[in-house]
Write a structure and sequence with these properties.
The complex is a heterodimer of chains A (152) and B (71). Chain A is 39% helix and 24% strand. A five-stranded antiparallel sheet of chain A has the order 2-1-5-4-3, with helices on both faces. Chain A has a two-stranded antiparallel sheet with strand order 6-7. In chain A, a hairpin with a 3-residue loop joins β4 and β5. The longest helix of chain A is centred in the middle third of the chain and has 21 residues. Chain B has two helices and two strands, in the order αββα. Chain B has a two-stranded antiparallel sheet with strand order 1-2. In chain B, a hairpin with a 5-residue loop joins β1 and β2. The N and C termini of chain B lie far apart (49 Å). The relative contact order of chain B is 0.07. β3 of chain A pairs antiparallel with β1 of chain B.
């Protein structure tokens, strides 16, 4: 795995982190498609258009609120959920499986964007990395953390 | 403070309550809704009757339909 996450890999990176992601797209500040998990360009462009419109509508709906502009959006619809997160430079949107945990999805979106912005890389815990070289045992498997953790 | 349960029947009832609460929470999570989060993680619901709610739901459904079309 490369040390620095590139925009071209960001959508795929999200799917690596979360098994609940069915598809993901990354848009730049201008709203243009930068990367997608979709192999078909036309479908990826359509999803990018929809993701851009989603945040436009959210901004319209919340413009009178006396709060900061929303950073993340969660839309639950029959059959699944749509999650999106943005920074000043990037917007990352994902379609998730039905029953995906919102908190985990939002965390993963945020983590990938942070990684993209040069924040801490997400990696396995040091303990797991150290043990990877040795033989696998049931005791070791039981000690492994189910969640990745942030590391510098 | 939660009362400590005594006896096997009482403990079984406690487990059943826990399972029921989890199922209710998962059902609530899957209900159609639009939630927005500010940078501090504070969540607010866009009410179904609010301006733009219907359009946001429609866009999300279109995104799901795009994926379903491929799958």
């Amino acid at each position: 795995m490369p040390d620095t996450l590139t925009p071209e890999r960001a959508a795929e990176r999200l799917r690596e982190l979360s098994a609940d992601v069915r598809t993901a797209v990354l848009l730049d500040a201008a709203g243009s498609l930068t990367s997608a998990t979709e192999a078909e360009r036309e479908r990826a462009e359509k999803l990018a258009d929809l993701a851009r419109s989603l945040f436009e509508e959210v901004d319209r709906a919340t413009r009178d609120w006396e709060t900061d502009p929303p950073q993340q959006v969660e839309v639950q619809v029959p059959g699944g959920g749509v999650f999106a997160s943005r920074t000043s430079r990037w917007t990352l949107a994902a379609v998730a499986k039905r029953g995906a945990l919102s908190s985990l999805m939002l965390y993963d979106l945020h983590a990938v964007l942070e990684e993209l912005e040069g924040g801490p890389l997400i990696r396995r815990s040091a303990a797991v990395e150290e043990r990877a070289a040795g033989p696998a045992t049931e005791e070791r498997a039981a000690e492994e953390l189910p969640m990745p953790e942030l590391g510098g | 403070m939660k009362e400590k349960r005594k006896g096997p029947l009482s403990r079984a009832a406690g487990i059943a309550e826990g399972v029921a609460a989890t199922v209710r929470r998962l059902q609530r999570e899957r209900e159609p809704r639009v939630l927005v989060y500010d940078p501090s993680g504070y969540a607010r619901l866009i009410q179904p009757e609010a301006r733009g709610h219907e359009r946001i739901m429609s866009l999300a459904e279109d995104m799901l339909a795009e994926v379903a079309g491929r799958e």
